[in-house]
Amino acid sequence: KNEVEQSPQNLTAQEGEFITINCSYSVGISALHWLQQHPGGGIVSLFMLSSGKKKHGRLIATINIQEKHSSLHITASHPRDSAVYICAVRSGGNEKLTFGTGTRLTIIP
Amino acid sequence: GAVVSQHPSRVICKSGTSVKIECRSLDFQATTMFWYRQFPKQSLMLMATSNEGSKATYEQGVEKDKFLINHASLTLSTLTVTSAHPEDSSFYICSARDASGTNYGYTFGSGTRLTVV
Fold it and tell me: How remote is the C-alpha of B12 from its chain's centroid?
């Protein structure tokens, strides 16, 4: 079992739909990151969370430390949101990130 | 915000040759740079961690003599794939952490797609 599990693996939705991507982890963490990887390969860091909730534009990320679970929400989804979304965790003083396998999101106009 | 510039973005080379990939932090000092490899439709796999002025730490199974990493300054780290073979064809991407304070945010390069023919 991977230390970081994401669901769903693939998600296709219509433009405008509310999107939720889930991440569960099995280790103690000091921070959780949500990353966005575009078709060309470049990766953008969306959020770094250690507790609670963060919002940036149409993106919202939440984390429940007790349940070892995080969600990434996209409101009013748009075709340009189509990308692979990756959850990654950092444990303790270790700088290394452990990655989930990613969720491939496709938004249809 | 913090930017990591990675070059080249795409390279095709012949078997047996070496390829150098550069990552530069443009507006911050990166004491630590991470090098990843990614196969199609798979997640990132950490190859090595480089620290400025010291030897890189390689992950298990990664050949240090094949994947040479140099982190000579706080703004530049390089990965050289030596004697490249077709099985080295992959997407390579670097990531740096800002050395200032306790910000553990990571900034990624744009990646290098290597094709060995």
Answer: 17
Paired tokens of A9:
């693996």
DSSP labels for A60-105? Answer: EEEEETTTTEEEEEESS--GGG-EEEEEEEE-TT---EEE---EEE
B104 or B98, higher pLDDT? B98
The nearest CA of chain B is from the CA of A11 a distance in Å of 14
Residue A43 with chain B: CB contacts under 8 Å: 93, 95, 108, 111
Question: Can you say whether the dihedral through the CA atoms of A57, A59, A65, A66 is positive or negative?
Answer: positive
Q: How confident is the model at residue B29, as a pLDDT?
A: 86
Q: Report the residue of chain A nearest B108, measured CA to CA.
A: A43
Residue A59 half-sphere exposure, CB side, CA atoms within 13 Å? 14
Binary contact (B43, A99; C-beta < 8 A)? yes
Per-residue pLDDT of A7-16, as tens digits, reads 999 999 999 9
Determine whether the interchain pair B107/A40 forms a contact, defined as Cβ–Cβ distance below 8 Å: no
Residues A29-39, mean pLDDT to the nearest whole number: 92
**Could you read off the pLDDT of A37-47 as tens digits, one per residue?**
998 888 999 99
